[in-house]
């Protein structure tokens, strides 16, 4: 899988360079990341809005090992999650996110805009990250989370349903 990822990154980088060199104006490359477990309208809204602010949108989908590092588990396996994201019309390329460090991603992809959730806004670690990105000309844009829906809320609701309705567990299994 590493060889395929490396080839994909080189291909994306090469296409971006060609477009930047031949284009009349500089193409804006956007980047965002997420787990995208139990894909919902909040995910779709984020990707749609991000795509509206850039010419090409690259999306890092968090690998299962990185999710486990945060002491969490996904419901949908990585390969399925990345395939779902890859097939969203607003996404130009979906790539594995195997490192939490967004600056390392920038070194590989050279994006112009980073889209992140507003829960990070004002956090000391992100203030440092913003300063680092400003030095290389990357703009950080914060998006509000969609109120009323999240993968965590969906998981909690499914768990409650399974606990209160024993027959639901049999039907799902």
Structure description:
The protein is an alpha/beta fold. The protein is 51% helix and 16% strand. The protein has eight helices and five strands. The chain has helices spanning 2-22, 41-52, 64-69, 78-86, 102-109, 124-135, 151-164, 166-172; strands spanning 29-34, 56-62, 93-97, 113-117, 139-143. Strands 3-2-1-4-5 form a five-stranded parallel beta sheet, with helices on both faces. Helix 7 (151-164) packs across helix 8 (166-172). The mean pLDDT is 82.
At CATH level 3, the topology is Rossmann fold
The CATH class name reads Alpha Beta
Number of separate strands: 5
Any idea what the CATH superfamily is called?
A: HUPs
Termini Cα gap: 31 Å
* Main β sheet profile: 5 strands, parallel
**Secondary-structure arrangement, i.e. CATH architecture:** 3-Layer(aba) Sandwich
Entry keywords:
single chain, 16% strand, Rossmann fold, alpha/beta, 173 residues
Structure at a glance:
With 173 residues, this protein is an alpha/beta fold. Helix content is 51%, strand content 16%.
Summarize the topology:
Elements: H1 2-22, E1 29-34, H2 41-52, E2 56-62, H3 64-69, H4 78-86, E3 93-97, H5 102-109, E4 113-117, H6 124-135, E5 139-143, H7 151-164, H8 166-172
Parallel strand pairs: 1-2, 1-4, 2-3, 4-5
Helix pairs in contact: 7-8
